[in-house]
Each structure stands twice: as C-alpha cells, then as structure tokens.
UniProtKB/TrEMBL annotation:
The chain crosses the membrane at residues 40-62, 74-93, 99-117, 129-151, 157-179, 191-211, 223-240, 252-275, 281-304, 316-338. The keyword Transmembrane applies. It comes from Neoroseomonas soli. This is YeiH family putative sulfate export transporter. It is a multi-pass membrane protein. It comes from the Bacteria. It is found in: Cell membrane. One of its GO terms (cellular component) is plasma membrane.
Length: 341
C-alpha cells in the first residue's frame, strides 16, 4: 500500500494537470458542437495545443514531470489497447472484396508515398512516418497509436498532429467542391471521403451536405480504413524491434517484437469479433480510450518547446499537404478502377 500511495503521490500532480487540460479540450469541443453542429477542431488537438501554450508561457516544475511522463506514455498505451474493443470483423464483411482490397492498397501506397515525400523534404524518419500514417489512415488517432511503437518524441507528435489537424479542417470544407468539378455520384463521393478524410466525425461533416448515400458509404469505407491501423502498427512494431543479431534472437520474447498494448489491442479485437465483448461495453470503452488519449496528448504538449515546433512547421505542412493531394489522386484512381458508380 505504501508503494502504491508513494507512486500515486509522485505522478498525481502531473496527471491532474493533464486531466485539467483535457477537460478544457472537451469543453471547447462541446462548445463547437453546440454552435456549429459538429467540431472543426477535436478535443485531442485542443489539448495538445493548450499543453504547448502552457509550456511556452511558463515553466513546468519538477513535481509535475513524473505524472506528465506517465500520462504521455502509459496512459496512451492503455488507450491504444482499449481501441481494440471497437474493431470487429463484421465491418470488413460489409464491403465487397474488391473495395476491401482496394482500401488496403490505397492505405499502403499512401503510407509509402507520403513517407518518401516527408523524407525528401528533410523530415526525420519518425516524423515522416507519423505524417504518413496520419494522412493515410485516420489522422490524430493513427499518429497517437503509431508514436509509442516507433519511439517518437513529443515534439514530433505535436508537429504532425498540429499541422495534420489544420489540413483536416481544410479537407472537410473543400472536398465537397470536387463533386461538381469531377462529376462524382453520391456513392463515388462517399468512397472518396471515406478514403481521404481523417476522422469519422469529419467524414460525416464532409458528406452530410451532399447526400445520405454519401454519408453511409463514407462511414463504412472510413471504418474499414481505420481497421488498417492494427496491421500497420503491428508491422511497424516488428520492423522497429528486429533483433540485433542471430545470437541474441532466441532470447527475445514475443513482447520484444510486439508491445504489450498491441497484444492487448489484438486480443480485444478478437474478443469483439467473436461476440465476447458485450455491445453495451463498446461505448464506455471507446469513451475511456478517447479520454485517455486526450489526457496523453495534453502531456505531450507540455513537453514541447514551441521554438523547435516552429522550426519544422513549414516542412511538416508541405509534407502533409502534398501527401494529402496524392491520397486524393490515388483514391480517385481506385474509384475509377473498380467502376464504382
């Protein structure tokens, strides 16, 4: 008990600070929803920007640091694990095999191309990978899930989330303009939105002005695209944790290759697919994962020096922007290839 009490008192102040910032983010998101009907800036983005602002305006004392570090790492890993309960194989079966394979191909091509663009613009390996996964899969959620696997630091995470968030808003506002320009049907536009827009709420915001068919198709495609996060994260963890030599390989356990929270993610996904996770539990687990992710993003923001963030801003924005245009082009190519009408 003394050990637990000691650990709680050590991390308590920092965790509480991150929680306050997270609550501030949720409050602003709720205000957006009340005013506009949907959020343009997610609580996750607000939290990380608020954390950066607080770090920039003042000094974070030593008593806060253990809790901030715990929130940035452990709470984020728990959040990623809980997301497994939201994944079900039934979603995969709701689309045809051609479109299912096409979505997977688009994600893989976009990740590879986006990573190459980022590296070509001088981004570090980890930052280029975060931007690539964020653009290609599901924006902030993908960045948050990939970051602990590849060992990304708070500066890289903040950079990729901040500028990806800006582009996310631009996409929501501008994507419907492609319907008359390209002569897209409601179904085609739904597929395009599902393949390119970052978050599920943003898909709804981007498709609702067009047609209900677009909303339905966009949501299904987006959910399948989100399911690619699991295989991508597992693949990245395997590539990031390869053994140094054949001599040491036998000593490495499975946990060396795949982090515990990824195993937990896959376990919960399997339980959900077999109906062993009650439907009534999915909503609360999703909400808890969301809260923990926002708290961890506040912690990451508190660890970011804004001067360093400003130094890489132009390159990150360029990498994310060019990658996004490329993703739209690949998605349109898939729509034409599959003959979606």
């Amino acid at each position: 008990m003394n050990v637990i009490a000691g650990a709680a008192s050590r991390i308590g102040p920092g965790v509480a600070l991150c929680l306050v910032i997270a609550l501030f983010g949720f409050a602003l998101q709720a205000a957006e929803e009340a005013i506009f009907g949907h959020p343009y800036v997610d609580a996750l983005v607000i939290a990380i920007l608020a954390g950066i602002a607080l770090r920039t305006c003042g000094t974070i004392g030593g008593r806060w640091l253990p809790g901030i570090a715990f929130s940035a790492k452990t709470l984020l890993e728990i959040a990623v694990m809980l997301l497994g309960a939201t994944v079900s194989i039934q979603v995969l079966l709701s689309v045809g095999p051609g479109l299912l394979a096409g979505i997977a191909l688009v994600v893989l091509l976009a990740i590879g191309a986006s990573y190459g663009i980022g590296r070509g613009l001088g981004l570090s390996h980890r930052l280029a990978l975060l931007v690539a996964c964020g653009n290609s899969i599901c924006g902030n959620s993908a960045i948050a899930a990939v970051a602990p696997v590849i060992g990304a630091n708070g500066r890289d995470i903040a950079s990729s989330i901040a500028f990806t968030a800006v582009l996310g808003v631009i996409v929501v506002l501008s994507l419907p303009m492609l319907v008359p320009i390209l002569g897209l049907s409601a179904t085609q536009y739904g597929v395009l939105a599902g393949l390119t827009v970052y978050a599920v709420p943003q898909v709804l915001a981007a498709t609702a002005p067009v047609a209900m068919v677009s909303v339905q198709m966009g949501t299904i495609v987006k959910l399948v695209r989100v399911l690619m996060l699991g295989p991508v994260v597992v693949a990245l963890s395997l590539m990031s944790e390869r053994p140094r030599s054949a001599e040491t390989a036998p000593r490495l356990a499975l946990m060396r290759f795949v982090p515990w929270f990824i195993l937990g993610f896959l376990g919960l996904a399997a339980l959900r697919s077999f109906g062993l996770v009650p439907q009534a539990m999915v909503g609360p687990l999703t909400l808890l994962a969301k809260i923990l992710t926002v708290v961890s993003m506040a912690a990451l923001g508190l660890g970011v020096d804004l001067r360093v963030l400003r130094a890489v801003g132009g390159r990150v924005t360029a990498a994310a922007g060019v990658s996004l245009v490329l993703l739209v082009g690949i998605s349109l190519g898939l729509i034409r290839l599959l003959g979606i009408g």
